[in-house]
Amino acid sequence: MNRKQDGGKRKKGSAKQEAPQRRHRLPVIEAEPGLGLTAAQVRMRMSEGYSNAPVESNSKSVAEIVRSHVLTYFNLVFFVLAVAVILVGSWQNLTFMGVVIANIFIGIIQELRSKKKLDELNILATPKATVIRDGVETTISVNDVVRDDIAVFHAGDQIYADAVIVEGDCLVNESLLTGEADELPKVVSDPLMSGSFLVSGHCLARLTAVGADSYVSQLSLQAKKQKQPPQSEMMRSLSLLVKSIGIVIIPLGALMAFKEIAVLGNSVQSGVVSTVGSLVGMIPEGLYLLTSLALVAGVLRLSQRHTLVHEMGCIETLARVDTLCVDKTGTITEAEMLVQDMVVLEDSMVTEEEVRQTLSDYVEAMAADNETMAALKKAYHETPSRTPIRVMPFTSRKKYGGVAFEKGESYLLGAPEPILGDQYPDYAEVIEEYAATGCRVLLLAGYDGLVGTEELAGDVMPLALVLLGNKIRKGAKNTFRYFAEQGVTVKVISGDHPTTVSEVAARAEIPNADAYVDARTLVTDEQIKEAALKYTVFGRVTPEQKRKLVRAMHNAGHTVAMTGDGVNDVLALKEADCSVAMASGSPVASQVSHIVLMNSDFSSMPSVVAEGRRIINNIERSASLYLVKNLFSLCLAIISLVFTFQYPISAAQMSLVSVVTIGIPSFVMAMEPNNTMIRGHFLSNAVYRAIPSALSDLVLCIGVVLFYQVFGLTGEELGTICTLVIGVVGLLMVHRTSKPYTQLRKLLMGVCVGLFCFSAIGMQSFFTINLKMSAGAWLVLVVFLLLAFEVSLSAHTTVTGIHRLVQHVKKHMVRFGKKAGRHSEKE
After folding, report:
1. How would you classify the pairing of strands 460-469 and 537-539?
2. pLDDT tens per residue, range 379-394
3. Which 3 state secondary structure label does DSSP give 333?
4. Which of 73, 153, 179, 761 is the most buried (most CB within 10 A)?
5. Considering 148, 213, 322, 327, which one is annotated as catalytic?
6. Which is nearest to 183 in space by CA: 192, 170, 165, 171?
7. Closest C-alpha among 209, 81, 225, 86 to residue 149
8. What are phi and psi of 648, to 5 degrees?
9. Residue ranges of the chain with pLDDT lower than 50?
10. Is 577 a catalytic residue?
């Protein structure tokens, strides 16, 4: 299925479809292949809903964006709490709604900006189709083809609608639909399934089912009904957190209200205000918004670097990548290949002129559907002297092609090993000598068998070696050096000779480039699994082996990214945790990948990875600020229920702490550069960072409550003291999170401290703070403000020590488990 959907402005006929429209039945037109449909016939099909409109769009409408930000569970909770506060007449405790409404508007505006930019980029990236209409080949968007169109398909094209071949022949891979990697021959009258792609060959096909009627669209609709797409680790953690809190706050809110009003005997107004204050503190109102905005901002920044993101969740996956698999051609080297030399073998009994003529005849019979053949056509263009009668295109699985000419002459051209078979050792020395220079070595051989059979059954007569090469990409060395410094292991997986690939990898300064293996020796899945972890360079790899290598690395616990640009990379791209395609390569590679480099510049990969790391690291750091408030509020509410004392903090007071110590710092920190390698799990990391401050808040507030009982303080004084104390602890958390300080973080810290002091002194009534307290209350406040520094430091030191101890024990347990496993294997 096409993963690149038209996200821009569409004609009415290209609107999103969820199911086939109700329409008039139109008769099938079997147009002549060379003529195609007329303009009138096309218009009729467009108007009746027989266009190839996508069944779903990856771009939300404006209405969907507004609904997604307004109609949320927690917004409903907030509005219910606001109504409760209004009904009891405590208007000053509605300040929390200002934050909620601001979050809604910021989220909507930012996502609309993102939609506009990404829709523009999607229009550029929308797959193109070549169709014949009124006798003329025309290139249009795949969304604008109609049923009965005559479509032109070349090697590397994805089949975007169900069709039947009316002219030509090809090899088709249906693995994206069936999971089977076989290359199926297709001839006239054979069907083509949408979602499959051409491996080689060329054909004209009449489209029989388009849009929601096509096979792949039906599969897509069924899959959409059955399950949602998998979430990233961070989004799963956030969803778990939000669901857990959403379940807890309802019964907890009811118990809190009962305790405050029925048990403690407070007024309805006082009880509602205390209950609302506790619940507002438990809800991470800005965390989900912050995460969405940070991801959206990341997608926007990547789009400015000519990088198209198909799935937003892949940004996190890319940030966690520790293994990067790359192809040689188009990634390490420039995609364009050049013939560097041709070597006639000593015992071939042919002259150089004869070889040149044979190569010219051979390439004339072949389509220039890959870079190798394009290079050969440029180098060998003598006037053809033979007439081809049978052509076997090159495939990545066989690694050779063949042509049969009149008068019984047949020739093979491709990788020497599969062509020579048992004869390879006789020519290995000369072949590997050229391969060691970094050249791609092709063998031209005469063949006395039938061209096109699955196996070579006739005798092979080696004639000459053709040497091709391509330049190392500009910036490739710096790119691979960056990944080495960042702890990312690079694996080079190629169909070329392993010695050639190793030499090219060494010239690109990829670490351990001399650790290479010939994939033809990897027969079993177990051998592939072992080799995936042992070697850096893999040569003579088939597309299916590429997929198995990526899967083996993933199963070994690695987060694997795969870059590619060809049809032979598609299976591995689908298997990778995060796939990156070059826009200049095969259309099908771009359509199945998570990320597309629109400028096809591999040297932009470090900035893409850095953007992912910046987003995830900063969200994780900012999430800890939110979790301080949530953990503290939840624990304090439960303790107040158990020991039946008044919840000390109102909604207005909690809003002050949230804005100054959470909201402002988290949004600033979320946009900062941060290229640190991501380790551990998102939620556990965020909770670990939040626990010291949450624990400090809890201990200090319980202490204030005890003093409140002893000194006979008023409820108003209790709330003021607790608010100022947890505000100071929050600022200490911001201080610790801001280390090491930059100029921006110094400014941020100064603004937060200044704003907190100004609000506490100059906006007392707005935040229900009253500094006109008794001498005893002031004494308690000063004591606990001083204690806040010591308690916060002690909590941080204690939690850090416990965390290190747990990690140390875990490490030893893992080592013990590995030793026990090795011991049992020996036995």
Report:
1. unpaired
2. 999 998 999 999 988 8
3. strand
4. 153
5. 327
6. 171
7. 209
8. -85, -15
9. 1-21, 223-228, 825-826
10. no
